[in-house]
Every structure is written in C-alpha cells, then in structure tokens.
Description:
By secondary structure, this protein is mainly alpha-helical.
Amino acid sequence: MLTVFTMTAGMTQSATIAKPGESGPVERMRSGDRTAFSTLVKVHQQRIIAYCLRFLGERELAEDAAQEVFLTAWKERRRYRDQGTFDRYLLTIARNRCLALHKKRRSGWALATRYADLRATVQRADEFEPMVILELETALAKLSLKHRDLIVLRYLEGLSLDEIGEVTGLRAGTIKSRLNRGVASLRKELANDQ
C-alpha cells in the first residue's frame, strides 16, 4: 500500500492507494466497505465541492450537490467499472447533477462573490491574488454553459481532452472547437473588464 497526501483548504489529508495486485479503496468500496468509501470521500470531497461551486455559484448548494454525488456513487458502487479514474467518475456524476440543478433553477451561472468561496474554486488559490480570482470567476460567469463547462474541466480541473470526453460524452473535435470558442470569449470578457 502507498499513502498519498493531498492539500485541501489548508488541511493535509491522506489516502491509502493500492499497488498493483492489492485491493484498493475503490475495489473495497465496490464490495460494500464503508471505511474505504469514507476514505474516498475525504480524498475527493473538496475537489467535487469546488467543481460544483464553480458550476452553481452558491456554497450551500454546491455542498448539497457534492453530497448527492457521493450518495449516488455509494448507491451505484456495484455498477462502477474501473475504466477510468474514480475522480473522473465522480466528476461525471457531479456534472450531471449540476446540469440538472442548473436546468431546474434556470438562472444561469450564479456567481459566488465571497472570497472564501472563490478561493475554494481554484486549486492553487494561494498563487493568485483575490482580485484575479474574482475577475476570472466573473468572466467565466458571462460565458455560455457549454463553453464554461469545458473550460472549467480543461483548465481548472486539469483534465485531458480524452478525459473530458469521458466526463461529457462529447467527441474530441467538439471539445476542441468549444474550448477554442470559449477561450476566445473568455479573453474578450477579461479584456472588457479592464
């Protein structure tokens, strides 16, 4: 077993990851091990909340959505097939949940304006000035959902084009095209704000 440490919201968390041939937390979770599932939640919780917050804009709503993501992952644990990474699986569930909430609310992207919430949306928030984060979030909020979603997955979540395809079900050509248009729109919005 290998212990991995992650930094989230100023706290160090660890997770035990299995080496090849060992039963890891995902496999143990699939067979009903609640302790393994709890470990997975601790490792992935802040990332899923941050993703939902970028999408929904309200901290409480994002936390509720993230909780539903993990409840869905637990309920559907036996259906999970290790075809990608578990975090992409969670992002897929999170994206679907956020899209459903977005359609239900019909209010577009709601901007999180509190600095504490904005810090949670950037993985390396300590490297950026608060105003830069606010400008980026404000500009992202003005983009169409189809462009904003892909920009968040690519540049803030750090997924590859193939991984984005797994999460969204879109083809690589569509992803590239929307990313190019989205980045151009984002540059325009950032230039207009200055």
